[in-house]
Backbone:
């Protein structure tokens, strides 16, 4: 007789869909475990997952019709597993209740057993961040992390522990890019995308995988920006056919070697945080890395995927999801955002976190908030460049309120630090 909490159709449909689309292992499979499947299908799931995570072709291990909606199939498998979890506790609960009626344990003990059974079922499919861990169990990992940082400093001589942005002053203020949600905000034309694109390339040059999720620019355009920066050719010259293709070709060969771990994806209205998480996990596995940099360009464009009616609520919800994503991936997530013009833009005025457009909970949920605005020249002549100030308005792990003086060259898509923290090289690499 079939068990009330078995759903073989959902299990077969999901596994058949996984065979056809290995990417499901990164988006939906993390919610599932082999023991959530029945009748030996958990072993099939485990094997398919192992092949997919190793980027190997998936064998055909199950016959059946692929689920038209794998998300619903995964939800049905999870729901059945929760039902079986509670069902398995009923016998223990019944015995405890009988003992209580016979003068055994107090009824509060029975209620405790029931509450534990419900909590156990609720934890199925929940990320580690939702579990209860005693403080003493965490102390060893915290001390070990401090030891690892000390050993790294001794070995490299550097006190910067996060991913290097390529901008020395910024790295000193932030300790590099560490896991957490970092917001880079500015008005249109201030170079948000250009700066984020350059940071992405600098991180990739160290061998760390980078996922750049763009809701506005195409992959080709973002890559072209790098070639223009490296060759010193204006993007408009390329688009009008006035650029030397030989020069671009030489830079393309050089950049291709440095950008081997840099990936761009063109997001759509249906690109969710869960989908980004799947891509991030895939890159970590592909490059055998314990972290990945995720760039989201930009927050207000992604906001409607949260499903609320108002933009403010959507932006706040997406910001919270991106912060959760940084924990799950053990990665810095750099999200671009717009600034309101109101109250800012007059001469002498500098932006603050109140200028974050439809800010919602951005300023509260973010670990770092960086604001781009017009700056003042300080140092040698800038030529075609214009001074820009990057203010660290919030820094959960260090100094806030400090500025990084930059030079922005819009025509070639280049950013450099002003003296005395001037840069060398056209890729923003540190001296």
Residues:
């Amino acid at each position: 007789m079939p068990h009330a909490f078995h759903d073989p159709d959902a299990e077969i449909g999901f596994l058949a869909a996984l065979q056809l689309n290995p990417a499901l292992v990164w988006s939906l499979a993390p919610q599932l475990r082999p023991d959530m499947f029945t009748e030996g299908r958990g072993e099939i799931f485990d094997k398919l997952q192992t092949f997919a995570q190793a980027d190997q072709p998936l064998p055909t291990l199950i016959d059946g019709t692929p689920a038209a909606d794998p998300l619903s199939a995964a939800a049905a498998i999870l729901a059945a597993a929760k039902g079986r979890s509670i069902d398995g506790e009923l016998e223990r609960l019944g015995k405890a209740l009988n003992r209580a009626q016979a003068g055994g344990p107090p009824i509060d003990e029975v209620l405790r057993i029931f509450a534990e059974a419900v909590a156990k079922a609720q934890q199925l499919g929940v990320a580690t961040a939702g579990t209860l861990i005693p403080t003493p169990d965490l102390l060893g990992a915290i001390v070990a992390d401090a030891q690892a940082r000390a050993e790294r400093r001794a070995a490299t001589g550097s006190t910067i522990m996060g991913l290097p942005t390529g901008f020395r002053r910024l790295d000193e203020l932030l300790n590099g890019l560490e896991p957490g949600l970092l917001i880079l905000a500015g008005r249109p034309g201030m170079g948000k995308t250009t700066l984020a694109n350059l940071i992405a390339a600098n991180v990739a040059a160290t061998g760390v995988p980078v996922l750049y999720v763009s809701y506005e620019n195409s992959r080709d355009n973002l890559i072209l920006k790098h070639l223009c920066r490296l060759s010193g050719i204006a993007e408009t010259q390329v688009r009008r056919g006035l650029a030397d293709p030989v020069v671009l070709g030489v830079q393309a060969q050089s950049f291709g070697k440095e950008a081997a771990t840099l990936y761009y994806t063109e997001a759509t209205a249906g690109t969710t945080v869960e989908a980004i998480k799947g891509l991030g996990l895939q890159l970590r596995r592909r490059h055998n890395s314990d972290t990945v940099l995720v760039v989201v360009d930009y927050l207000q464009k992604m906001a409607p995927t949260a499903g609320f009616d108002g933009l403010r609520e959507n932006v706040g919800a997406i910001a919270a999801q991106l912060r959760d994503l940084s924990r799950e991936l053990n990665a810095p997530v750099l999200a671009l955002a717009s600034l309101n013009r109101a109250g800012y833009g007059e001469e002498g005025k500098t932006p603050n976190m109140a200028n974050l457009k439809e800010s919602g909970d951005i300023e509260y949920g973010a670990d770092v908030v960086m604001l781009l605005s017009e700056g003042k020249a300080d140092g040698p002549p800038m030529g075609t460049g214009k001074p820009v100030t990057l203010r660290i308005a919030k820094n959960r792990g260090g100094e806030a309120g400090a500025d990084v003086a930059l030079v922005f060259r819009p025509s070639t898509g280049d950013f450099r630090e002003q003296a005395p923290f001037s840069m060398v090289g056209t890729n923003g690499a540190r001296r």
